[in-house]
Structure formats: structure tokens, C-alpha cells
Design brief:
Elements: E1 2-7, H1 13-21, E2 24-30, E3 37-42, H2 43-49, H3 53-57, E4 60-64, E5 67-78, E6 85-92, E7 99-108, H4 114-119, E8 122-125, E9 129-134, E10 142-146, E11 155-157, E12 168-169, E13 177-182, H5 185-202
Parallel strand pairs: 1-4, 2-6, 7-10
Antiparallel strand pairs: 1-3, 2-3, 4-5, 5-6, 7-9, 8-13, 9-12, 11-13
Length: about 210
């Protein structure tokens, strides 16, 4: 994805406020061997780009004065109640060094899992993103979580995910739970009641006592 930015010389809260009033968003690029560079970006273009999932987890081609460099979006601030992006931070990318990045999870095949098909269970998404480590060229836009084998009472953990080649999960020593399957309380009660009544319905009537 491409981002167009412009160098800005003036800094401080007053300069930033004037930028925002003119439809621009202040930002900064840092990292690598070069000094940080303060920039401005078109607010509307940035605002709509932030709505795209890939913008948050992809290598971006950021152009300044006709020169392009690869960066990652590292942080951004938005107004508490206005649709206004206040600031954006970008980090330069070195193609030979691994990056740590949070990547969104896309859940698939829940409808064909034993938990849903056989038991009418609900599958809860415990995590919606995970942190990964990889070279910039291997960074995925998202990771697909296959739920086709999950059953009631079972959980899917980060160690069971099938990750793209060259990508490893950053777990900090914890096998994070990604999803769980459980039957709603009302459904469990209904099944228990049906099971309890079944023997009574099948039972033969008691023999009459002889006179």
C-alpha cells in the first residue's frame, strides 16, 4: 500500500493545530540509521486508510518528495469524539531484519466443526490478533484460524495455529488461548431434561396386582 507524505519544518502544538485545521495530519518517521523526520499527511486519505485492516499490518510504501521508503504504521491517535486523526507514527523497515507486529486473526469453518454441527455450541473468539516475528517480506496481512476440528469443551491455542512460512508467533512463554467452544446454559438444561425424561417414556406400564 502506498502513502504520500510531506516534510514539515514547523513543530509544536500551535503548528500541529494549524495543520489539522488545513486538512492535514502531523506524523513522524523514525527508526533505522536515519534521523527521525516530521511529516504531514492528507487527513481524509489517512482516515480512510486506517479503516482497512491491511493498513495496520502491511509494509507500506511511504513517498516523500518523490522518494519511497518502506515503513510500518506503529501508532496513531484519534480525537476522543470527533472523526479526527491527531497524529501518526511510522517506523522504517530494514528488509534484512525481522519485525514484530500484531496481525489480525480471521476465523473460518466454525459452521462445520463438531462443536456447532453436533452440539449447537457457541465458539468464542478469545483473541482477535496475535504478535508475530518475521522478515518484512513474509509479513501476512492476516492469519486464518481453522475451527473445523474444535469440539465442545475444547480450546484452540496459539501453538496449534498453522502460520505462514517464515512467520513465528511471539508468545512470551504463554500458550495463549485463541478460541473456545461451549454449549449455551439453556441448551445444556434442555438436553439434560430430555435425557431424564427418555427412560420414563420408554418404560413399560407396571403389571396389575392380582386379586
Amino acid at each position: 500500500m502506498k502513502v504520500v507524505a510531506f516534510k514539515r519544518e514547523l513543530q509544536g502544538s500551535g503548528a500541529s493545530r494549524r495543520l489539522r485545521n488545513s486538512g492535514q495530519t502531523p506524523g513522524i518517521i523514525y527508526g533505522g540509521t536515519e534521523a527521525p523526520v516530521t511529516i504531514s499527511l492528507d487527513h481524509n486519505a489517512l482516515y480512510h486508510a486506517l479503516k482497512k485492516e491491511a493498513f495496520h499490518s502491511s509494509i507500506l510504501d511511504l513517498e516523500i518528495d518523490g522518494k519511497t521508503q518502506q515503513v510500518l504504521l506503529r501508532d496513531f491517535q484519534v480525537h476522543a469524539y470527533k472523526q479526527l486523526v491527531l497524529h501518526a507514527d511510522f517506523q522504517r523497515v530494514d528488509a534484512s531484519k525481522k519485525v514484530h507486529m500484531k496481525v489480525a486473526l480471521h476465523f473460518a469453518n466454525a459452521d462445520v466443526s463438531p462443536a456447532v454441527k453436533l452440539h449447537g455450541a457457541t465458539i468464542s473468539h478469545v483473541a482477535n490478533e496475535i504478535e508475530v516475528s518475521c522478515l518484512p517480506k513474509d509479513l501476512p496481512e492476516f492469519i486464518t484460524v481453522d475451527l473445523s476440528n474444535i469440539d465442545v469443551g475444547h480450546s484452540l491455542h496459539i501453538g496449534e495455529l498453522v502460520l505462514p512460512a517464515g512467520v513465528t508467533a511471539v508468545t512470551h512463554g504463554s500458550n495463549l488461548t485463541i478460541a473456545t467452544a461451549s454449549v449455551p446454559a439453556g441448551h445444556v438444561a434442555a438436553e439434560a431434561a430430555a435425557t431424564a425424561e427418555a427412560p420414563a417414556a420408554d418404560a413399560k406400564p407396571a403389571a396389575k396386582a392380582k386379586k
